[in-house]
C-alpha cells in the first residue's frame, strides 16, 4: 500500500539518509563512471578488479534492500533525482513500459551519445523512435537467431581469427592487444565492408568522440570531428559492399527521420562490449572442466552453437557490460512505497540482479543452463541486453558472431589462462584487458 501524508497526498518514495547516500554514490554509482561508461579506461578497470568494486556494489544493494524493503529508494544529488530499483517486478515494469513513461533517452545518455550519434535510436524522442527503432531492427534482423548475412560473417570471422592464430602460433600467447586488433578488423568488415578492414582512422575518430562522451555534457562537442566520422560512415553506406551491414542500410527503405547513417555508430561502439564479453567467455571456457570439449563438439553444427551462445550470455550475466540501465520518467509514477515525480532517473544496477546470491543460487558460478530457455517476466531479471521495447536489437548478431569467434579460436588450439579462474566462485569484477593465455596448437 503506498504511504499517504497527513493531507492525504501520496507520500514520495523514501529518500536515503546521508550516510547511505554516500555509500551508494561511492560503492554503486561511482565504479561504472570511473571505469568509463562510453569507452573503458583499462587502468581503472584493472584497479576495479583488484578492489572487486562490483562485489562491493552488490553487497551494498543487498544491504539497502534489507534496510528499506523492496520498494525503490531515492537519492538526490544537485540537479538530479535518482531512484534505485530493488525489486524484480519493478525492473520488468520499467523495461516493459518504455519509452513512456520510462524513456531510454536519459539526460546523461543524451549528453554522452550526442558527441557521435545525436540521431541515434537510443537518444531519440518517442516520436523519432517510431522510425529509428524499426530501422535498426530491420537491418540487424533482431528476432532472427541467425542473420541473413551469416555466411559472409562466418567468412570474415574465419579469416580474421585465422590471421590472429598465425600470430598466436608464433608467440605462443594470446593477450588483449592482439585480440583487439583482430576484433577491430572483423567489426569494420562486418559493419562497413571489406574495404574498411584497415581503416583504423574511422575507429580512432569514434574512440576520440567516445572519450568525450565519457564526460557527457561536461565536455564540449567536437563537431568537426563528428562530421568527418559521420561522412566516412556515409561513404561506406554508398559503397554498399556485399555482405556488410552497410549494404543492408543502403537497401532498407527509411523515412528521413530514421537518419540511417547515424544508427551505425551505436553498432560500431557496441561491438566493443562484445569483444570484452567474448574474451571473458574464453576465460570461462578454458577454466571450466569439459567446456572446451562441449564447444568443439557443437562446431560441426555452426552457426547453430547453443552452448557457446549460453557461455557468452553467462559472461554478460557475470560481468555485465552495461552495468547501469537507465530510464528517465516522463510522468509521475506510483510505486508500492510512494510516488516519484516526472524527470526522475531510474537506475537498474544489473550486477545486483545478476549476482544476488540471496535469491539466485547460481549467482557466482558459471551456469550456462540458466539460458537454456527464453526468460519470462516472471523470472528473476537477467538483463545484460536490457529487455522490453528498448532491448538491444543487436542481441542475436552479438550471440552469432561471438559464438563463431570462440568456436574458431578453440577448434584446433588449447588455451591455458595465465591466471586461473575458479568457475564455481567467480569474482564480481574481471578485467578483459589483463587476461593472458598460453596457447598450443593441437
Ligand atoms: C555484448 C554486446 C552488447 C551488449 C551487452 C549490448 C547491450 C545493450 C543494452 C543493455 C542496450 C540498452 C541500453 C539502454 O537502454 O540504455 C542496448 C541498446 C542497443 N544496442 Fe546493444 N549491446 C551489445 C552489442 C550491440 C551490437 C553489436 C549492436 C549492433 C550491431 C547493438 C545495437 C544496439 C542498438 C541500436 C541499441 C539501441 C536500441 C534502442 O534504443 O532501442 N548492440 N544494447
Automatic annotation (TrEMBL):
Coiled coil: none annotated. Pfam families: p450. It comes from the Bacteria. Belongs to the cytochrome P450 family. This is Cytochrome P450. It comes from Citricoccus parietis.
Amino acid at each position: 500500500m503506498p504511504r499517504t501524508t497527513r493531507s492525504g497526498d501520496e507520500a514520495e518514495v523514501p529518500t536515503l539518509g546521508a550516510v547511505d547516500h554516500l555509500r551508494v554514490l561511492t560503492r554503486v554509482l561511482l565504479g561504472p563512471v570511473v571505469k568509463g561508461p562510453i569507452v573503458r579506461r583499462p587502468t581503472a578497470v584493472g584497479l576495479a578488479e583488484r578492489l572487486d568494486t562490483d562485489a562491493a556494489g552488490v553487497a551494498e544493494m543487498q544491504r539497502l534492500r534489507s534496510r528499506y524493503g523492496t520498494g525503490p529508494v531515492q537519492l538526490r544529488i544537485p540537479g538530479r533525482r535518482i531512484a534505485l530499483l530493488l525489486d524484480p517486478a519493478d525492473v520488468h515494469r520499467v523495461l516493459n513500459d518504455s519509452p513512456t513513461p520510462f524513456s531510454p533517452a536519459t539526460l546523461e545518455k543524451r549528453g554522452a551519445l550526442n558527441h557521435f550519434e545525436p540521431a541515434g535510436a537510443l537518444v531519440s524522442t518517442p516520436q523519432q523512435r517510431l522510425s529509428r527503432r524499426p530501422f535498426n531492427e530491420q537491418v540487424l534482423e533482431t528476432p532472427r537467431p541467425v542473420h541473413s548475412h551469416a555466411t559472409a560473417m562466418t567468412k570474415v570471422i574465419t579469416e580474421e581469427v585465422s590471421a590472429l592464430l598465425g600470430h598466436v602460433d608464433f608467440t605462443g600467447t594470446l593477450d588483449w592487444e592482439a585480440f583487439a586488433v583482430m576484433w577491430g578488423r572483423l567489426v569494420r568488415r562486418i559493419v562497413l565492408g571489406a574495404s574498411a578492414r584497415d581503416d583504423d582512422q574511422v575507429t580512432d575518430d569514434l574512440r576520440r568522440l567516445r572519450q568525450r562522451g565519457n564526460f557527457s555534457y561536461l565536455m564540449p562537442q567536437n563537431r568537426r570531428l563528428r562530421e568527418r566520422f559521420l561522412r566516412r560512415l556515409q561513404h561506406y553506406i554508398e559503397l554498399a559492399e556485399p555482405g556488410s551491414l552497410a549494404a543492408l542500410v543502403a537497401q532498407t527503405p527509411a523515412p528521413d527521420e530514421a537518419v540511417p547513417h547515424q544508427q551505425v555508430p551505436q553498432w560500431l561502439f557496441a561491438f566493443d562490449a562484445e569483444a570484452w564479453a567474448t574474451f571473458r567467455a574464453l576465460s570461462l571456457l578454458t577454466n571450466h572442466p569439459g567446456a572446451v570439449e562441449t564447444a568443439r563438439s557443437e562446431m560441426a553444427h555452426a552457426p547453430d552453437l547453443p552452448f557457446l551462445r549460453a557461455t557468452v550470455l553467462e559472461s554478460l550475466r557475470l560481468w555485465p557490460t552495461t552495468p547501469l540501465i537507465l530510464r528517465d520518467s516522463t510522468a509521475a509514477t506510483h510505486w508500492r512505497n510512494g510516488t516519484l515525480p516526472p524527470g526522475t532517473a531510474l537506475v537498474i544496477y544489473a550486477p545486483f540482479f545478476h549476482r544476488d546470491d540471496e535469491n539466485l543460487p547460481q549467482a557466482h558460478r558459471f551456469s550456462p543452463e540458466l539460458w537454456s530457455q527464453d526468460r519470462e517476466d516472471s523470472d528473476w531479471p537477467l538483463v545484460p541486453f536490457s529487455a522490453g521495447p528498448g532491448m538491444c536489437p543487436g542481441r542475436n548478431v552479438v550471440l552469432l558472431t561471438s559464438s563463431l569467434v570462440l568456436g574458431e579460436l578453440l577448434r584446433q588450439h588449447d588455451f591455458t589462462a595465465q591466471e586461473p579462474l575458479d568457475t564455481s566462485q567467480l569474482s564480481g569484477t574481471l578485467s578483459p584487458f589483463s587476461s593472458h593465455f598460453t596457447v598450443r596448437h593441437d
